[in-house]
Amino acid sequence: MIYTNEVPVLKAQERSAVTLGKFDGLHRGHQKLIACMKQKKKENCTTVVFTFDVSPLVKLYHKPAKTLLTNEERQELAENLGVDVLIACPFTDAVMNMEAEEFVKEFLVKRLHVSYLAVGPDFRFGHERKGNPELLKQMGTQYDFTVEVVEKLTDGTREISSTYVREELEEGHIEKVNALLGYQYFTRGEIVHGRQLGRTIGVPTANLIPPVSKKFPPNGVYLTRSKIGEKEYDGISNVGYKPTVKENFLGVETYLFNCNEDLYGQEAEVRFYHYLRPERKFASLLELKGQLDIDMAKGRQFFADLHEKL
Ligand SMILES: Cc1cc2nc3c(=O)[nH]c(=O)nc-3n(C[C@H](O)[C@H](O)[C@H](O)COP(=O)(O)O)c2cc1C
Ligand SMILES: Nc1ncnc2c1ncn2[C@@H]1O[C@H](COP(=O)(O)OP(=O)(O)OP(=O)(O)O)[C@@H](O)[C@H]1O
């Protein structure tokens, strides 16, 4: 897959199938749109996901930049979905002020030689968000491309959207988040040294400092599976600031159930499965250890049941 910040100019004969939007999370609704676009590979179209490298909302309304996926994660997931080109167009003032018609002419027609465009019915773009599927269809007639307005995928009660996923994540509804995404919510980072107090209570942990832009469920304890190198481990993770020992940054700290290796310096992907309890301040590490024993027993049972089902 080609990942680029600039809208590329395709070769003279090359045509593209394009979809546009923010694509935070690459949830099941996004995946449906990408599947429609991929149908056009049969007609030799290059598949293009056109997105922005800063959420337009962040730039326009200074909303916090916490996202479900970092740019790198979104890139990797798009590649796994079989996308040929992912454009993360910088949301500059020039792009922000571009009229919808100009955006279509300059980027989609002139550069990408668009042949097919897939968008959701509520898709808006261009200066003052004046561009919509109707305008795209009119321009499609003029510039010889087809527009498919893809019906929104729902979970039976509500349309799936990044906003919906973020709301459920904020509530700690991990199973729901995973169902909307179509994969397990995850975070990644390098395993770094903590204060090494964990091992003094018989609970050595893998600490990672996640990207600052990554959105997290509420501080608390979660049942997780971690992928480290080629291996996967069941475990239990704390997300938060460890009030008992007072950490000053948000960390993800995991006790891996069946692991006694030295993991420092390795990259880990921690996948969330289930919310167990909120993070709490304990009077002592020993008291915390008592709670951890209860948490671990629940975690081991959860994964034993899960593996039995699979
Ligand atoms: C599963 C799990 C649950 C935890 N729960 C809490 C908690 O509720 N409150 C808290 O202050 N720290 C919690 N911690 C963090 C501990 O305070 C931490 O593991 C211990 O202080 C060792 O930290 P260190 O790795 O920096 O040495 C939890 C850690 C794990 C692995
Ligand atoms: N549930 C869905 N089914 C099909 N297409 C969708 C779905 N959700 C979004 N899309 C389409 O995917 C493209 C990218 O969507 P985008 O990420 O901008 O919206 P979103 O997921 O609804 O996010 P937000 O909640 O931030 O508005 C748009 O064309 C949008 O209409």
UniProtKB/TrEMBL annotation:
It catalyses: FMN + ATP + H(+) = FAD + diphosphate; riboflavin + ATP = FMN + ADP + H(+). CDD domains: FAD_synthetase_N. SMART domains: Flavokinase. Keywords: ATP-binding, FAD, Flavoprotein, FMN, Kinase, Multifunctional enzyme, Nucleotide-binding, Nucleotidyltransferase, Transferase. The keyword ATP-binding applies. InterPro entries: FAD_synthase, Riboflavin_kinase, Riboflavin_kinase_bac, Riboflavin_kinase_bac/euk, Riboflavin_kinase_dom_sf, Rossmann-like_a/b/a_fold. Its EC number is 2.7.1.26, 2.7.7.2. Pfam families: FAD_syn, Flavokinase. Pathway: Cofactor biosynthesis; FMN biosynthesis; FMN from riboflavin (ATP route): step 1/1; Cofactor biosynthesis; FAD biosynthesis; FAD from FMN: step 1/1. NCBIfam families: PRK05627.1-3 (NF004160), PRK05627.1-5 (NF004162), ribF (TIGR00083). This is Riboflavin biosynthesis protein. It comes from Blautia stercoris. The lineage of its organism: Bacteria, Bacillati, Bacillota, Clostridia, Lachnospirales.
